Structure formats: structure tokens, C-alpha cells
Amino acid sequence: MPRGRKDELRVGPSLRGRFVLSMTASLTLVLSIAGLALYGAAREIAQNAKDDALASATLLALDPPTFEAVGTTAVEHKSGVKIFPVLYGDSKRPGTVYNFARIGASGKTRSSQVLVSGQREVGSEILGLMVGMMLLVLVVGAGVALWVAGQVVRPINLLVDDVRQIAKGNLDHHTSARGGGAEVALLARSIDRMTTELSQAQGAQVELSIREREMGLASGVREALLPLVTPLVEGFDLGGAFLGSDEFGGDFHDFLELGDGRVGLLVCDVGGTGIPAALIGATARSYMRSELVRGEDVLASMHRINRWLVGDVRRGMYVTALYVLLDPTTASAEVVCAGHKIPLLRYVAEDGKLRVVHPEGIALGFDKGPVFERRLEVQVVTLAPGDRLVLTNSAPVRLANEDGVELGEKNLFSRILKHAPLDTTTFLKSLRRDLERFVGDVTMPLDVSLVTISREG
Fold it and tell me: CA-to-CA distance for 425 and 419, rounded, in angstroms?
């Protein structure tokens, strides 16, 4: 991770480095020019002061005036020349006397002195020059600092404008900062990455919102698909159970009470999941209830339902149906299977075995009529005391445990056989408990519909 951070900074010199380098280079140039100018001006002042002193000394040497020393202390130069201030002439003008005395070879003292008029204020001139030069350096330095600050601040201002655009909701905007050092480049890159992540998060939020609305609608449709009441049939024990999952679909089961006392048991599978499957399930249930409760010939009713449903089901969608029409007076039932994968399961109390009833037929919505009507058939079964019929959708056999192993038909059938002698309420509770234990702690992955009826002994 640290290596990645270093790589990100290798986009140019740092902001601090650019600032120090720019200021150092600029001030070095300014100070160099100022130093050369100051040196030249000071040299000229010194030369002028020397020329003035020599000129005045030459003039005063032609006609030496009288003078008197100011003070008693003289300054001795390293050459031996003594320097002391004096006042000369009638007007007592200030001057400086340079005196040198030595003993010659003859033993006599030889003395030389030079009077220079006045004292030029060379120091004040140089001080004024330095003050002026310093002011010039400050002005130029301030200009350089403003220029460097502009180079640094400009990309930051561009980033501020970029952030304002992003804050207004323009998540497609990209930073336009250029220059400003590695820190600014890294900040621009981070802002772009943040914008991309915000855009992705916004898209995910929209998808989640759509998904939540779909789930809410599908949940409402699913609740509407479930039967409100379970019919009471004399001599028979009837019941149903539904195990809901988070993966909404259109699978449903229903009970139909016909006017002549017969009762219909229906379980349907709908291809697909989500809103489309739920709507197809709702449409199929509406068609089936309105047609099957009329109590006419079962095959003719299914033919009409298929023709109606073909126009409403888009290509690739389908509805399978397992329908049992029970006549309590004869304890016989007509069975129709329209492409349903799980057959009708019949428990025979006499021998304690489980048998399957699986009439021929294809799913509703696949064919406009001829093939569907030719393939569909009806079987009739009779229930003896203690016998049980079980209808289910395909979900139970596709349930997987925590290891990913599916339950399968064999294991489902063995569990149904185990609990079949129980009363319907206990049978459904036991079977439901077995399915939940098989799945484990995870949420039920599929919607499970269970319908059963048994003849009382």
C-alpha cells in the first residue's frame, strides 16, 4: 500500500518543492542584480569621495590656512599617519589633517601634513542607497511571490470549481486542474475517483430503489395469489401451506369451491422471477378461477385457459399447472397436469406406499392450441379411507442446503411418505419443519407451495 501512494505522487514536483524552488530562483536573481547594482553605486560613491578629498587637499596645499585641532585625540592609521579633525580659516570650517612625522638619517625630525576640507558623508549616501535597494528588492520580491502564489492557487481554484460542479449533482464532471504540483494532481485524481464512486453508488441506489419497489409490488401480488380460506369438505381433511422467500415469483396454489359441492386443488409454477412472473401468475390465477369454478369439462376449460393465456405470456414465459378436481360424493378425483414437473403424489393407506400420478400435458402459454389440446389428458383416481393426495410446485426438490446439495425428488418423496399417515395439519407442519431443517439457517431460497387432501378413515 505505501508503494502505491509513492507511485501516485510521482506525477511531478511537490507543491512545497515548486514554491521553494520558484521563490529561491526568483529571489536569487533579484538579489544578484541588486547586489551588482549596489556594488557599482557604492564604488562610484567611494571614488567620488576620494576625488573630492584629493582635489580639496591640492587646493589647500597652495595656500595653507591656519587651523586648530578639535579635541586632543588623534586617530593613528596603520601606516603611522595620524588623523585628527580641525577647524581652519577665519570661518572655522571643518576639515581633516593627515600628519606624518619621522626621524631622518641626519637625526632631524621630518614632518608632512595634508589638510583636507570638510568631511563627505559617504556613510549616509551608502545607507540611502541600501535603503532604496532594499525597497526595490521588497517590491520585486512581492511581485515574484504574487506570481508564484498565482501559479499555486490557480489549480486549487480550478479544483474548487470542479467540486462545486460535482456538488450540484454533475457526477459526469471531471477535474480540470493542471499544474500545482504532485499534491494537487493527487487531489484531482482523488476527486475524480470519488466522483466515479459516487456515480456508481448513485446507480446502485437507483437500482436498489427499483428493486425495493419491485419487491413491494411482487410481495403484494404474491399475497393476493394466496387463498384466503381453506374449504371444509365433509369426510376429507384439506389444507395448504406456503413458505415464502426473498426471491419473488409467480408460483401459487389455490382452492376452488364449485357450486355442486366439488372442490378443486390447484398448484402452479410460473417461469421466471420478479414482477413479470408475479403478473403472469396473477393473470393465470384469474383465468383459472373464472373458468374452472364453472365446473364444466376439465379438458375444455384448460383449452380455453391456454388460448387466453397465450396472448398475455411473452416468449420464454410459461405456466405449469397441476389440477385435481375432487368429487366428495364418489371420493374420486380428476387429475390434469399441464407440464407440471412434480407429479401428483398419492399415498395409499392400504399398503403404506407412495404412488405418482402424472398425466400427459405441456405447459400453458407455449402453444396456441393444437399441440396443447392434443397432448393434454385426464386421469381419474379414487381415494380410499386414509389415502392422501399431495400437490407441490417444483421448489421443494430444488431447495439446496448449506453445502449446495439439492433435496431432490427422492428425499422429498421419502419425507412425504413418512408423514402421510398424520392428520393434515400435523402433516404440513412436519413437512415444513423438514424443509426448513434441510435448508439450515439461510433464508428459504424459493417460494414453496404445498396442498394436500386426505380421506378420513
Answer: 11
Question: Do 151 and 179 touch, CB atoms closer than 8 A?
Answer: yes
**How many whole angstroms separate alpha carbon 202 and alpha carbon 188?**
21
The mean pLDDT values, 10 residues at a time, for the chain of 457 residues are: 44 61 76 80 77 74 75 76 80 80 70 70 71 79 73 70 74 66 69 77 73 65 74 94 82 92 94 80 90 93 93 84 96 96 96 95 89 94 96 94 91 96 96 93 86 92
Three cell numbers, residue 253: 396454489
Determine the Cα–Cα distance for residues 406 and 83; give it in Å rounded to an integer. 119
Contacts of 144 (CB under 8 A, 6+ apart): 22, 23, 26, 27, 30
Beta-carbon contacts of residue 102 (< 8 Å; ≥ 6 apart):
80, 109, 110
Phi-psi region of 352 (alpha: psi -120 to 50; beta: other; left: phi over 0): left
Residues in the chain: 457
Contacts 24+ apart (CB under 8 A), 112-116: 114/57, 114/61, 115/57, 115/60, 115/61, 115/64, 115/65, 115/67, 115/86, 115/88, 116/53, 116/56, 116/57, 116/60
C-alpha to C-alpha distances, 390 to 298, 341, 430, 457, nearest whole angstrom: 19, 14, 14, 17
Q: Which domains does the chain have, with CATH numbers?
A: 2-66+120-164 (no CATH), 227-455 (3.60.40.10)
Strands 378-382 and 252-257, sheet pairing: unpaired
